[in-house]
Amino acid sequence: MLDISQAEAEETTRALARCEGICAGISSGGSVAGALRIAAEVQNAVIVCIICDRGDRYLSTGCFAPKPPAVASVYQFPFAAARLIGLPAPHVLFTSGDDPATGQPWCPDCRRAVPAVRAAADTAGVTLLVVDVGERPAWKDAAHSFRTSETLQLRCIPTLMAWDVTHARPLARIDKELETASDEAAVQALAAAFFKSR
Description:
The protein has 198 residues and is an alpha/beta fold. The protein folds into two domains: 6-61, no CATH class; 72-197, Glutaredoxin (3-Layer(aba) Sandwich). Helix content is 41%, strand content 13%. The protein has helices spanning 6-20, 26-41, 77-82, 108-124, 136-140, 145-148, 176-180, 184-197, and strands spanning 72-73, 90-95, 127-132, 159-164, 169-174. A five-stranded mixed sheet has the order 1-3-2-4-5. The chain is globular, with a radius of gyration of 17 Å.
């Protein structure tokens, strides 16, 4: 059994309408979200889900208002990235998780970078998915899934990637530049130049 949140079901419902022209209800979005999760983990399989309700009953709820995906965790990343299909200029920013004691990102470079990259993304009109790499001990482990991934091969955080949604891979990245930027203004300038070059 899979636990699909309301937010994830709604995001997937919007993606179905935007990308496939399927006006379905939220429970159908949840069904497709579950199928996307399984598809991210299983290879060489046919995955089937049922779209069993219509979306016209949800038009007044705001479910179909355009909203980019929110912050995703390590485990949510594959299907959150899949829902970037059809959104303008998708980019992914990998950053640290919040320290339970302070509620702030545990990485000072990320604390500086995230607001600046978000501001640059808003100005450029691109879609930004923020991905939390987890707590410090998890990220520092050489076996972290993002470090060992053949596709991602993250070397540091923060890392900003232009994302190819068709092939689920990065097209370009900046990382060490963001990590060593002197202040938020420098980060915002780097991100703005990166968004403009894509």
